[in-house]
Amino acid sequence: MSFRLLPKDPKFFELFIADGDNLEAAAGALNEMVEKYDRLDERIAGIQALEKAGDEIDREVTRKLEDAFVTPFDREDIHELVSRLDDVVDGIQAIAETFVIYGVTAPTPEARRLAAILDEQGKELAQALRKLDGLKDLERHFDAVHELENEADGLSRAAVAKLFRDDLPPIEVIKWRDLYNYLEEAIDAAEDAAEAMERMYHKAN
After folding, report:
1. Taking the C-alpha atoms of 43, 44, 45 and 48 in order, what is their torsion angle to the nearest 10 degrees?
2. What is the H or E stretch that residue 156 is in?
């Protein structure tokens, strides 16, 4: 029989949870913005504040890694995880800002679904991060993130193809192709974060 005792420094796990909660809040804020599409400046300011909060959590993790004698997972794996989580929140901020920069008057149904997928991924990642301390019941969250990414992959390809079929003005094609790509990249980043956590989980078991 083999077992692994994790150093029970609660601060690392508190920071993982805080990072996940922040990402979930950002993804939820983007989804609500795309769904309701009102008070855009106020909503974007909220997302920007969450991005800054995420950066501070990442800096705190880095300080903790520098100071800790023993860490619950490999230092490189912890750094990889928080970097991937940061990528998702950065992507969310970029998407929100691009809607305004591009002067989008109303999101498409495809954009709404992609934002909803990202929101669902955020919830799954946050739940998984809450369970990282106990290393139990994480795989269903990883699977859900992967399944959502697969749905988004097909949806974004179909959405881009539809742009060219609908004979839209070239500037509209460019705007929406960019936005679909940014949404897909953030969804891919969420899958990357899940995979980083998955590697930590398998190493520890």
Report:
1. 130
2. helix 139-165
Please tell me what DSSP assigns to residue 69.
Answer: S
Own/partner pairs for 98-102, CB < 8 Å, 24+ apart?
A: 98/178, 98/179, 98/182, 99/33, 99/34, 99/40, 99/179, 100/40, 100/41, 100/44, 102/175, 102/178, 102/179
Q: Read off the tokens for 30.
A: 């983007």
Residues 168-173, mean pLDDT to the nearest whole number: 95
> Does the pLDDT at position 44 exceed 90?
yes
pTM: 0.94
Q: Which domains does the chain have, with CATH numbers?
A: 10-204 (1.20.58.220)
